[in-house]
Design brief:
Distance between the termini: 27 Å
Number of domains: 2
CATH topology of the largest domain: TIM Barrel
Radius of gyration: 25 Å
Structural class: alpha/beta
Bound molecules: (2R,3S,4R,5S)-2-(hydroxymethyl)piperidine-3,4,5-triol
Number of strands: 22
Number of helices: 17
Strand content: 15-25%
Helix content: 25-40%
Largest sheet: 8 strands, parallel, barrel
CATH architecture of the largest domain: Alpha-Beta Barrel
């Protein structure tokens, strides 16, 4: 059983954050943030991710104004949602858009990255001490303010330090300070961390280059280009660790970094290695995972020294896979405001996204209890990696074989219940791709199902011989099948019992039924 380090805590207990991230400009004031809060509730999310801007909180050097932060706290408490605040400062998507004007206009003091042609970029140099000091000071003030305003209520459960730190337009910083760093001895901290980890692409490259214990970057890593990227990434990550350290010194709250899954220059796994080794004051490094090779990204970031969190995704059905197979401890999709139309209704094209968050939120207590035990199974219709288009799936469960069927059954009598027939005429196309969710086997005879448009048949393994010859055997029997939800105390509350015809044709789910609890009878 995997030991899962829970970073998010509320009232001393592990917490599973799930919801949306606001658009970039929504944190400036409460008029802008209102839609993000409203939609977080509509979505059944429990937490909102929203930015705080250095340029706004320190408009004049040394003069701080946290009115916008206070407005976020007030709204979050009114809506009863938690907050993860994103510190947009030295880096925001590989540039410096969110630093104050007094930083933007003083490149002599706050040095810029210089590219290989000698051009200054719209990006601050990680080698500039003045910028690190200024960002750290502002972040520490922000943390101090949070401590005074929120350490009793804990509305804010974590802080993201910077946003997608990187350099747009250059492989590294060729400024005089950057060149000095490149030619200086590789920091012993880097070498020690690499040796301790003892695997992975950076370690392998070092081995191939002769495993030198000391020397400049190009001496330890034979290929100059890679040595340059590694040095550059290390410098950025160390800078961010410095900012995090300054914040943690005043307010000890979980902190993380979100990485851009950019493939240019540096391999994703190498970037992860460097960031992880360089940032002891940061609790976790999470991918902004929009990639097609979703599972590869999960495998790279879900490692023993890094709790696996996805601060930004598109929220597709792969989230269930990350929860079940990679012990994901929380996730957010970007642009929570977009789920509603101007009249406040959920846009049809956002419905599946909303449903997935709703289904995840309905079983967070079970996720906290059963992740890492092998009892959580993702139900996904299309496995993009396998290009698998099966209309059914087989699950190997404790004491049972589960057969998952997607979509509607042909005969109307075999469809779902009367509430779910509306609009499902015989000619209506059945969207089987909508089928996804989670199946949690709490004990041999106790199952919890959430999701959309699938139905589960449970065959006791004692029927195995028949199962192997034909799937037309009778599924197992039930003591009870109930729709319901978990209350504040973690008790399952029954809303509606299913029996008779309603359980003879499989255990189907839709997001609006809540959680389906199934107690089987041997
Ligand atoms: C990733 C960034 O982290 C977000 O702030 C936002 O810019 C999105 N990309 C836009 O898709």
């Amino acid at each position: 059983m995997a030991d899962i380090k829970r970073i998010f805590m509320v009232e001393g207990k592990p917490f599973y954050p799930v919801g949306g991230e606001s658009y970039n400009s929504s944190g400036y004031n409460d008029r802008e943030s209102e839609a993000a809060f409203k939609n977080t509730k509509l979505l059944h999310g429990n937490t909102l991710e929203i930015p705080v801007y250095w340029e706004q909180v320190e408009p004049k050097e040394g003069t701080f104004d946290f009115t916008s932060v206070d407005a976020l706290l007030v709204s979050a408490r009114r809506y009863n949602v938690k907050l993860i605040l994103l510190w947009f400062a030295t880096w925001k998507n590989g540039n410096m858009d969110y630093v104050p004007a007094w930083v933007k206009t003083n490149p002599q003091r706050f040095k810029r990255v210089i590219d290989a042609h000698g051009e200054g970029l719209w990006n601050l140099s990680a080698h500039c001490k003045a910028t690190l000091e200024a960002d750290s000071k502002a972040f520490a003030e922000f943390c101090k303010h949070l401590k005074t305003q929120d350490s009793a209520e804990h509305t804010v459960i974590a802080l993201q330090v910077e946003n997608e730190p990187d350099i747009i337009g250059s492989d590294r910083d060729y400024s005089p300070e950057g060149e000095v760093a490149f030619k200086s001895p590789v920091p012993p901290m880097f070498i020690a961390a690499m040796k301790k980890y003892g695997k992975g692409p950076v370690y392998n490259m070092w081995q191939k280059s002769g495993s030198k214990e000391s020397g400049a970057w190009p001496e330890l890593f034979a290929r100059a280009a890679e040595a340059g990227y590694l040095m550059c990434t290390w410098s950025i990550a160390r800078y961010i660790d410095g900012v995090a350290e300054a914040g943690k010194a005043v307010y000890n709250i979980p902190m993380f970094i979100n990485l851009w899954m950019k493939q240019e220059f540096l391999d994703t796994e190498m970037r992860m290695d460097i960031f992880r080794w360089a940032t002891p004051h940061v609790d976790m490094i999470g991918p902004d995972n929009y990639r097609q090779d979703f599972e590869t990204i999960c495998a790279i970031h879900a490692r023993d020294d890094n709790p696996f969190f996805m601060p930004e995704t598109n929220g597709d059905q792969n989230m269930f896979l990350a929860i079940a197979d990679y012990n994901l401890i929380g996730y957010f999709f970007y642009g929570v405001e977009r789920i509603t139309a101007t009249d406040g209704s959920i846009r049809p094209e956002s419905q599946m996204l909303v449903d997935r968050v709703r289904c995840t939120a309905a079983v967070v207590l079970l996720l906290l209890k059963f992740q890492g035990t092998g009892k959580i199974h993702a139900v996904i219709h299309q496995n993009q990696l396998m290009q698998d288009q099966l209309s059914s799936r087989r699950l190997d469960l404790d004491g049972y074989v589960g057969l998952v069927e997607f979509g509607e059954r042909k005969a109307p009598s075999l469809r779902k219940d009367w509430r779910h027939r509306v609009g499902v005429g015989p000619t209506e196309p059945t969207n089987i791709n909508r089928g996804n969710g989670l199946i949690i086997q709490a004990s041999r005879n106790e199952f919890y199902l959430v999701g959309a448009n699938y139905r589960l048949f449970l065959y006791p393994k004692s029927y195995l011989a028949q199962i192997q010859t034909s799937l037309l055997v009778t599924p197992g029997h039930f003591i009870s099948v109930d729709e319901g939800y978990f209350d504040q105390n973690g008790e399952f509350v029954v809303d509606r019992r299913r029996n008779g015809d309603d359980i003879s044709f499989g255990l189907w789910v839709e997001p609006d039924i809540g959680v389906l609890r199934v107690i089987t009878c041997d």
